[in-house]
């Protein structure tokens, strides 16, 4: 699908919907909005009064009309007061509306961020982090521009245009109002038509920019992989190809902008020339005074200056709306996993887990689990083993309700996990994942993430239980050592021990160990296995394991093959049976003996 297919030609409706969606965020500050609008009207009335007062001053000083010229002090003071008032009311308006603008940006950005966390794991596995972050960045920036310029530049300019045309029609020949109206209508029409034509270049620029940013971030996040395969030039070439497409769109965008600006300037020049010529004729015939000529000229300058700026504002608003379309598009993403209306919290008793004839498929063409049925009794330890792709890790994802089962059900203490709140379900479960990804913060922060409200003593105790304390104390900055992007400054074993400490700090009723010791050496593994046994002794525990030596003490071992449970029993029972488990045990023991020789 081409990118522009996401933005159909009936974009006016999308723009209107985007603007309508802003209304609730503005209306929560309605008192400030109404006050700001009042100040806007006062500022424009004062602004229009300036040329009128200037005309009176010029006429009072015109010796052809007044044989005795007297300094019009009162009019001069009124002129200065009106200019000061226009500036004062305008600045007060901006100051009062600042809270509205920044508050709306904060509310919408927070809502988008929260919604991204509410979306399913499926969305986050498919998303492109760089593109999403750039969409949010551009969207919030565009939102600020819309609120500041559309509300307090376009509307004031339109109000001023209406006042000026009304005054010209009332005081002078109808041709003054007609020429002014036609010039403005031509200017606005030209701006609308050309800007709509130019928007395709802007949208292409946005798409190319997001793609280039996504590729850059993806490449940098996988820095080590790039180095392993010596693909620096390959990555640079891919990034350069994307930037070349952006460059082409940017050039077209700039050249079309020049055409737009020239056309706008031509319309303004023709309109001003006609009006000044008309006014000069009326002065020579005595129908108008010099003050009237100055008034018309001042009105034109006062009108066309913001009108010229209006063209820029309109273009930027269209650009901002294009940016907002992408950000609001994130809010339109369906939350695949959602709490049922009025769902209660999970009521924990012992923490028994029951998988009842569970079936699951990521897509209709790719079924992963087939009739999986087992129970993890409260306070007991059940292990799941099997070759890669057997569906072991899918069990933990379903238990956390990252996905919903496509058949059967999962119960915790007799409650279907689809009928309780996700927050309460996940609060009851702790996990030590196989691939531990840490925040780019301190070691202390990453451990404390298991329970941000925990005391420092509790955090240190969790580190000690995970056998991290001696390692951390050996670091120059101790617990304040930063771990780097995704924890790249730490070894796999160190990251996994932080994950264990984090899970212990959470102190859940149910624990899930998903290949929890896969990155540890044999010595570290044995030390942590004892800790894990202690942590699991009073908890319901589900262990997903590859190393069979780590689960010999499990109360029940399940052997999975191609999404089905093919064997179950204790370690001794399965060895005695001589089936899949016994074969796996023999292979691992043989490999261990070869490594120790």
Describe the structure.
By secondary structure, this protein is α/β, with parallel strands linked by helices. It has three domains: 14-331, ABC transporter type 1, transmembrane domain (ABC transporter transmembrane region fold); 344-428 and 509-597, 3-Layer(aba) Sandwich (Rossmann fold); 436-507, 3-Layer(aba) Sandwich (Rossmann fold). 64% of the residues lie in helices and 11% in strands. It has 18 helices and ten strands. The protein has helices at 11-27, 30-61, 73-118, 121-126, 129-171, 174-221, 223-228, 232-284, 290-331, 392-399, 422-427, 443-448, 456-465, 469-473, 492-506, 522-536, 571-577, 580-596; strands at residues 353-363, 366-376, 381-386, 407-412, 415-416, 429-432, 510-514, 540-545, 556-561, 564-569. It has a six-stranded mixed sheet, with helices on both faces. Helix 5 runs antiparallel to helix 6 (174-221). The longest helix has 53 residues, at 232-284. The two termini are 58 Å apart.
List the defining traits of the structure above.
597 residues, alpha/beta, ABC transporter transmembrane region fold, Rossmann fold, 3 domains, six-stranded mixed β-sheet, four-stranded antiparallel β-sheet, 64% helix
Helix and strand layout, with pairings?
Blueprint: H1 11-27, H2 30-61, H3 73-118, H4 121-126, H5 129-171, H6 174-221, H7 223-228, H8 232-284, H9 290-331, E1 353-363, E2 366-376, E3 381-386, H10 392-399, E4 407-412, E5 415-416, H11 422-427, E6 429-432, H12 443-448, H13 456-465, H14 469-473, H15 492-506, E7 510-514, H16 522-536, E8 540-545, E9 556-561, E10 564-569, H17 571-577, H18 580-596
Parallel strand pairs: 3-8, 3-9, 6-7, 7-8
Antiparallel strand pairs: 1-2, 1-4, 4-5, 9-10
